[in-house]
């Protein structure tokens, strides 16, 4: 009942109105004008016992765009889920917003807007501020403090993650957390009769080639590599993307010099005949087994697209992952109706119970909350030095293994959210064990019973 209020979709509306409904300080605000003084600001926090920091620059809040410092609602909400879902003490959680301006004219003209009223600062000046912040955080709260990137823009998110991921205990939830929960659902689908039983047999088309989409594709490619022994670059050939300009292809890459994260998925499309500018074109020609929407463009999974998926597949798999609900590519009702109840559907925001073609469905929500609380608990407990890609794959496998026969019968690829504490515990145990196995744990001695050790660190909020 509370999840949609603390998290998507309600948190999106709260962020849009944040400066107008603000009532008391939450977390730390660091602006571009604070360069050179970031550590002093962090040292003002009331405790040094901080284990997890979620920080955003507010540039890409959910599917709502640049909300500037109003994006503080996201780190606040995420850390509440760290506590509720994984028992991480609230006192050990710190939300942070990095204010480097906003390009949203509405906020620049709003007299109640709490952030800097200037255009966003880009380039080296901004990157240096992020570097200073992350170094200051580790010096203030310890080298293993978890630093979660949240809702940074596409133009900065990939570069910042690549620059920092080997030096800090850090991850980007929009790139890696979303990828992990999506892969978990895909792995769970392999057990469904009529759907592909091997990951390598999937042909996947993405609508949207931003942080979430590319992150999911990269983790799928890594998973194919792990499970089927082919190279990651070869595995990427199973995955196609459409952005605002149409299908990403080799020809487009040569003509436009696509960004690096798109370049890796620019495939040879010369064998296809006819236009490839729309999703319907791509579904008709590529004949995907799965479509994944991460575009924040509502209505783009049209009736014709869904009908084509049903014609080409015994069990079409449709993931409409954009948040909040009004940004979803199609509703659960539409997906079931248009595929005559054949599809397996998952979404980023929750849908209720659906009745279609004589069946009742409770579609699963591909909610990052299945991932980041347990992942955080595991790396915090082990005092991880960094978070390698293999941990996200292992976590996705762990999530898929927790889907029960009852979940499948109700049409879901995810466990019920009521089991989130159990799911988070299982993930945390696996993550901690992997940290010791990979020799990236700062805790010197691995406990004999990892589960009991992790449980001892979880706060129970029942009263």
TrEMBL record:
<dbReference type="GO" id="GO:0046872">
    <property type="term" value="F:metal ion binding"/>
</dbReference>
<feature type="domain" description="Malic enzyme N-terminal">
    <location>
        <begin position="1"/>
        <end position="165"/>
    </location>
</feature>
<feature type="binding site">
    <location>
        <position position="174"/>
    </location>
    <ligand>
        <name>a divalent metal cation</name>
    </ligand>
</feature>
<feature type="active site" description="Proton donor">
    <location>
        <position position="7"/>
    </location>
</feature>
<comment type="similarity">
    <text>Belongs to the malic enzymes family.</text>
</comment>
<dbReference type="InterPro" id="IPR012301">
    <property type="entry name" value="Malic_N_dom"/>
</dbReference>
<feature type="binding site">
    <location>
        <position position="151"/>
    </location>
    <ligand>
        <name>a divalent metal cation</name>
    </ligand>
</feature>
<dbReference type="Pfam" id="PF00390">
    <property type="entry name" value="malic"/>
</dbReference>
<dbReference type="Pfam" id="PF03949">
    <property type="entry name" value="Malic_M"/>
</dbReference>
<keyword id="KW-0560">Oxidoreductase</keyword>
<dbReference type="GO" id="GO:0051287">
    <property type="term" value="F:NAD binding"/>
</dbReference>
<dbReference type="InterPro" id="IPR037062">
    <property type="entry name" value="Malic_N_dom_sf"/>
</dbReference>
<feature type="binding site">
    <location>
        <position position="60"/>
    </location>
    <ligand>
        <name>(S)-malate</name>
    </ligand>
</feature>
<dbReference type="GO" id="GO:0006108">
    <property type="term" value="P:malate metabolic process"/>
</dbReference>
<dbReference type="InterPro" id="IPR001891">
    <property type="entry name" value="Malic_OxRdtase"/>
</dbReference>
<dbReference type="InterPro" id="IPR046346">
    <property type="entry name" value="Aminoacid_DH-like_N_sf"/>
</dbReference>
<dbReference type="GO" id="GO:0004473">
    <property type="term" value="F:malate dehydrogenase (decarboxylating) (NADP+) activity"/>
</dbReference>
<feature type="active site" description="Proton acceptor">
    <location>
        <position position="78"/>
    </location>
</feature>
<feature type="binding site">
    <location>
        <position position="367"/>
    </location>
    <ligand>
        <name>(S)-malate</name>
    </ligand>
</feature>
<protein>
    <recommendedName>
        <fullName>Malic enzyme</fullName>
    </recommendedName>
</protein>
<keyword id="KW-0479">Metal-binding</keyword>
<dbReference type="InterPro" id="IPR012302">
    <property type="entry name" value="Malic_NAD-bd"/>
</dbReference>
<dbReference type="InterPro" id="IPR036291">
    <property type="entry name" value="NAD(P)-bd_dom_sf"/>
</dbReference>
<feature type="binding site">
    <location>
        <position position="150"/>
    </location>
    <ligand>
        <name>a divalent metal cation</name>
    </ligand>
</feature>
<dbReference type="InterPro" id="IPR015884">
    <property type="entry name" value="Malic_enzyme_CS"/>
</dbReference>
<feature type="domain" description="Malic enzyme NAD-binding">
    <location>
        <begin position="175"/>
        <end position="436"/>
    </location>
</feature>
<feature type="binding site">
    <location>
        <position position="323"/>
    </location>
    <ligand>
        <name>(S)-malate</name>
    </ligand>
</feature>
């Amino acid at each position: 009942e509370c999840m949609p209020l603390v998290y998507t979709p309600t948190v999106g509306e709260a962020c849009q109105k944040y400066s107008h409904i603000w009532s008391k300080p939450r977390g730390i605000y660091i602006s571009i004008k604070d360069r050179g003084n970031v550590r002093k600001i962090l040292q003002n926090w009331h405790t040094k016992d901080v284990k997890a920091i979620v920080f955003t620059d507010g540039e890409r809040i959910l599917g709502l765009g640049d909300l500037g410092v109003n994006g503080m609602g996201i780190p606040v909400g995420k850390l509440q889920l760290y506590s509720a879902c994984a028992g991480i003490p609230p006192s050990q959680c710190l939300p942070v917003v990095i204010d480097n301006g906003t390009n949203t004219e509405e906020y620049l003209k709003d007299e109640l807007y709490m952030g800097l009223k200037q255009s966003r600062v880009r380039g080296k000046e901004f990157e240096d501020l992020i570097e200073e912040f992350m170094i200051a955080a580790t010096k203030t709260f310890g080298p293993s403090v978890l630093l979660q990137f949240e809702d940074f823009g596409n133009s900065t998110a990939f570069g910042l993650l690549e620059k920092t991921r080997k030096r800090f205990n850090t991850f980007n939830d929009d790139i890696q957390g979303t990828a992990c929960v999506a892969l978990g659902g895909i792995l769970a689908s392999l057990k469904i009769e009529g759907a592909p039983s091997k990951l390598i047999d999937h042909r996947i088309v993405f609508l949207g080639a931003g942080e979430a989409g590319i992150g999911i594709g990269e983790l799928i490619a890594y998973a194919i590599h792990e499970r089927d022994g082919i190279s990651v670059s070869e595995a990427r050939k199973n995955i196609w993307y459409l952005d605002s300009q149409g299908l990403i292809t080799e020809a487009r890459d040569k003509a436009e010099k696509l960004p690096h994260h798109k370049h890796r998925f620019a495939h040879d499309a010369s064998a296809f005949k006819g236009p490839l500018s729309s999703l319907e074109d791509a579904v008709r020609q590529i004949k995907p087994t799965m479509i994944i929407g991460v575009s924040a463009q509502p209505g783009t999974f049209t009736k014709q697209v869904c009908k084509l998926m049903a014609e080409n597949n015994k069990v079409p798999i449709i993931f409409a992952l954009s948040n909040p609900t009004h940004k979803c590519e199609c509703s659960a009702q539409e997906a079931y109706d248009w595929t005559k109840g054949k599809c397996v559907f998952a979404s980023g925001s929750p849908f209720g119970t659906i009745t279609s073609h004589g069946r009742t469905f409770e579609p699963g929500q591909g909610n990052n909350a299945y991932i980041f609380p347990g992942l955080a608990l595991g790396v915090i407990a082990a005092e991880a030095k960094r978070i390698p890609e293999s941990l996200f794959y292992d976590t996705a496998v762990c999530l898929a293994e927790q889907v029960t026969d009852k979940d499948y019968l109700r049409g879901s690829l995810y466990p019920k959210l009521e089991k989130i504490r159990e799911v988070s515990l299982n993930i945390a145990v696996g993550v901690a064990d992997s940290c010791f196995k990979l020799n990236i744990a700062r805790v010197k001695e691995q406990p004999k019973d990892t589960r009991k050790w992790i449980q001892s660190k979880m706060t129970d909020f029942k009263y």
